[in-house]
Each structure stands twice: as structure tokens, then as C-alpha cells.
């Protein structure tokens, strides 16, 4: 459901789910297991690059699996299960002891959008794909940790309004203008190549992962609070 490749200090995580990389329980557990394993293998200079296979980075939670349960109440239980199961994935990314780069190869919707912006850097292709939070269009509530992380990643009230209350679909170049995306490239391949170049630059810094993670958490206090993350004192030398 996801693969992890190591190139020197760079770790490349590729989401390989169904044709839309929907976040079903199997893929969520695969992501969480991979991130936990990666955290334990972190060394100074480690960098994570996350991308997807195919036309989608991730189309969010697998609503088809939820609706296949046979009743509205059972579907709601399945959706809630995915919401709760995905929370540790967001927490694992925010607390990962290394820089992180999302190389968005296609559409990133709902939980897929959140997955992307939990990274430190967001690269996106300009020729295809949108960022989209469809909850208002689908009539679904926004999970509290989604709201907390998005509020701290997107600082403009007007952009927040358009993303969460208007369900706008944001292409790559617009994402740069809105401050959601760092830079765009003309294909999925060139997006990953740019992420690899940045990853090599960051790896050369040889930063201590634990320190990096704690500084990152200090930038997003409300998101960390809702995700159940606390800051640790890791001063060992002056």
C-alpha cells in the first residue's frame, strides 16, 4: 500500500493504493507503520520525500469502503474509524525527526490534502491536480485535528474561508500565490526531481533529528495539542 526507498540519506515514501490512493484502514496502517519505522531509523541528515503513484497523491478517506457497510450508521462508524486511525499518521509526520517534503503528483483531496500539508515543504505539479477540501460539499463535519493543523498551516483568514467554507479547488500555481505550495513543476517526474534536489541540500545540513522535530512542533502548538503531541526538553550540550 506504500513503499519506502532509501537513497543515501533520502527516504522516498510512495503511496501505492488503489487508482486514487484512497486512505482505507489498510493504507492508513501501512503509512503509520512506515513512519514509525522511519522515525526509529533517523540519523543526522535524514530527509523524507512523500509522493503518490498515478494521477492522485491521495483522494482522501475511502468513502466507498465506508458506504459498502450496508447502512448509514455502519458507514458513519467506518468513517469515524478512518478519521481516528489517521490522526496518529498526522501526528507522526508533525513529530518526525527529519525534514519532510511532499511531492504532490496529482489530486490531493480531504485527508490527502491534510497529509500533504503536514510536510514541511509542499511541491506540486502545475499541469495536473488540485488541492481540495470537499467536506462542505459532501455534508461531512471537519475533524478537529484537521481544522487545527490547517489553521496553523494556512494563516490567511480569506484563504481558510475559501478552502474550508467554499470548497475551492486549488491548482498548483494558485497554491503558490496563496502560500500553500512552495513551488510548482511541469510534471510529476520533475516535481519529484525537485524534491530530491531540495532533499539533498537539506541532508547536507546534518541536522539533529530530535532537535528539528521539537522546533517544528513549537511552530504548531494548537495542532500538536489536538494531536496529543508534547514538547520535550532535549538539551544535552551547550
TrEMBL record:
Q: What Enzyme Commission number(s) does the record list for this chain? A: 5.3.3.8
- For the keyword Cell inner membrane, the answer is no
Entry-linked InterPro entries: ClpP/crotonase-like_dom_sf, Enoyl-CoA_hydra/iso
Pathway participation: Lipid metabolism; fatty acid beta-oxidation
Q: Give the catalytic activity.
A: a (3E)-enoyl-CoA = a 4-saturated (2E)-enoyl-CoA; a (3Z)-enoyl-CoA = a 4-saturated (2E)-enoyl-CoA
Q: In the UniProt record, does the keyword Hydrolase occur? A: no
Enzyme kind, highest EC tier? isomerase
The Gene Ontology terms for molecular function here are:
delta(3)-delta(2)-enoyl-CoA isomerase activity
Q: Which GO terms describe its cellular component?
A: peroxisome
Q: Which family does it belong to?
A: Belongs to the enoyl-CoA hydratase/isomerase family.
Q: What is this protein called?
A: Delta(3)-Delta(2)-enoyl-CoA isomerase
Q: Which organism is it from?
A: Trifolium pratense (Red clover)
